[in-house]
Amino acid sequence: MEKIQVRFTVNKEEVLLNVKPYETLLESLRERLHLTGTKEACGLGACGSCTVLLDGQPVRSCLVLTPEVEGAEITTIEGLKQGEKLDPVQEAFMAHGAVQCGFCTPGMVLTAKSLLNRSPKPTEEEVLKAMSSNICRCTGYTKIIEAVLTATET
Ligand code: FES
Ligand code: FES
Asked: CB 7: neighbour CB atoms within 10 A?
């Protein structure tokens, strides 16, 4: 099958890939670029574990085809920290014990980051709504919501 050349940026670095037309962004990130912080759980768009930011908006990378991201800017969890310093959202998750197995955490953090970028002081209701499409089987969500609300104060 003919491959398609796709150029986009990941964590501010330009990448050029030759991909099959149906290769997902999740596959490209994990298997070609070795950015395994983006997790694959359901692979069906249901859990949010594979969330990355596409031009600042959270998307499920298992549902996005790599050819669709031509020219786009992708941010994965590996792109959040500045130098050796974690992003304030990551710090808040650590401080609140909002991480257990950690499988949902990259997607949760990126979803929260996107919310705080567009709404720096969200209400609890806005946080609940924004985070509602990311599934966590461990924490019971309370500490995650607390962490996001605390990150708004930093
Ligand atoms: S792995 Fe993509 S939504 Fe679950
Ligand atoms: S911490 Fe385990 S799924 Fe959320």
From this structure: 12
